[in-house]
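Standup notes, structure subgroup. Blocker cleared on the zinc ion input:
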Amino acid sequence: MSTDYAASRVSHEGADYWLRRNDDGTKSLVIAHAPQAVLDGFSGQAEGDVFVAPADADNALALRKALPWLTPRRWGLETSAGTGDRLGLATPGHAQAFKDVGGVNPVFAQQSTREMGRTHRTPRNVLDDATWGAFQEGWTDGVGADADHQKTEESLSECAEAGFVFFTIDPGDGMDMAAHDDDEATVREKAARIDLSSLDTSTDDVVSRYAGQTIELESGPLVLDEESVLRAVAKAGPALVRGLELIKHVEGLGVEHELEFAIDETDKPTTLVEHVVVVKELQRAGVELISFAPRWVGQFEKGVEYIGDRAALAKNFSDHAEIARVLGPYKLSLHSGSDKFSIYPSFVEATRGVAHLKTAGTSWIEALRIVAAHDPQLLRDILALSLDSFEENRHSYHLSCDTSRIPSDLPDDRVGELVTELDSRQVMHVGYGAVLDEYGTRIKDILTTHEDEYAALMKEHFIAHIAPFGKR
Ligand SMILES: [Zn+2]
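Run returned:
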């Protein structure tokens, strides 16, 4: 028996739309009372007095055109959160959480180029899956779409073509982390060598522009001394140049867009002076940022609580937030933000909600609870394969897991603990590429068969993430 998703039913311009689950687990869009001109946009067929179309890529595009709230839009300075979904099955549960909390704007479609490579998904796949998921839950309050951690012109073009509107520019590979701690002579030497001509400036110009300046923040003056400015140039100069190239590329595409500048995937915290110099130089080049993702103090590891001094982090949040208010305003973005429940309140307070929360892999790792419950042996196999590829994967991520602590003798009814325990959780968190290659179909089958269970799990998990950002 096919079943209709009651929550999906929506009316627009006299026509009714809903989603149906077919006997074989596939899904179809059903349309009633629509004029022929609307139906012409979809590929499907009449069945009795309704029109039925497969939930495929072409029809996702047509649906975004027919129901404008499914077309990605910019959120500007409004509070927002990106959920990420490597499997393409998590959006219904995400949407339930956003409905429940209220006041937080969703970015369901969000995936980095690295993740798309490992999951063999295109920007269109990511967007289409998010479209069907949002539609299934009857989400009508608008959606964003984040082309996350973009490092090349090619992938920016692909994401723009697919319909993404939020571009996370990541020139972090060009950061010189050693310059964070180099002695002053080395910093001077490094800074002098950096070519800033594409920003129509030079290191000497930058020094004369900022050294000795004071930024009046709410909590007091921030003095930009010469050494700190030089250090900012030495550390972030090449990233600034590369970032501007990527931004100019986006601006040249002629698409609706908003920009986040992300230097979070680096080893050393972003200094306050670095924040000021980077943003002011981008602004001088005519760039308007909507969001900035610094590297905060402490450790932001995948899928686990914040590791570090929470009071120091709260101070770090408020320092950067004060700068963002004076120079912008623009949002501050909290990356690797999943499962860090203890720090959301201080982040929201510091930014006054001019904030973006970004989670990527937590929907993947949590999905493995459903796998553990229904096929414990598959979960063991997933862990084994993740361990095989761990040395290769761990380079891309910040992790503190110790594989020797992972138990290998858990009975079926306790296998789910492997999803909770830090060591096995992190190993599986980053092992998704190889695991999906090998077991993707079986995992997706389990999640599709038990989709209500997965949605309920996602709902609770994301309420815990976004409630501190929501209506209070
Ligand atoms: Zn990030």
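Discussed briefly. Residues 149, 262, 264-265, 335-336 surround zinc ion (CB under 6 Å).
Next: hand off to the docking folks.
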